[in-house]
Amino acid sequence: SEHTGITAPYATHRRRTQETLQPLAERLQLPIQVVDAQDVDEMVRQIRSNSGGVVLAAAHSDSTVTILQSLGTGFVEPIELDDFDNLYIVTFDDAGRVRFVSMQYGASTPSSSP
Prior knowledge:
The protein is of the alpha/beta class. It is 29% helix and 25% strand. The chain has 3 helices and 5 strands, in the order E-H-E-H-E-H-E-E. It has helices spanning 15-28, 40-48, 61-70, and strands at residues 6-12, 33-35, 54-58, 86-92, 98-104. The chain has a 3-stranded parallel β-sheet, with helices on both faces. A two-stranded antiparallel sheet has the order 4-5. Helix 2 packs across helix 3 (61-70). The radius of gyration is 14 Å and the shape is globular.
């Protein structure tokens, strides 16, 4: 994980997102930057303020889609409340164009649909 290049970990003020990032932040010896979960605009501003860096942000199902779209990804499928295995990568090239990749990690979240 020290080869991730992460320069700024962000989490919301909710304990769960901070606990998600804590092991990596400790290993990288980086403080977790905490942003109010309701202040999506501030989270986007903080992420954008790290131009040239690698940011890791942990957010919630209701705000992650808004954050991604505010970064310029275009439409993003809504995230179900019980869906915890999403990983989104947003990159910007030198011209400011956005590249967006959606992946899953770990064990799949069991589907809540019948």
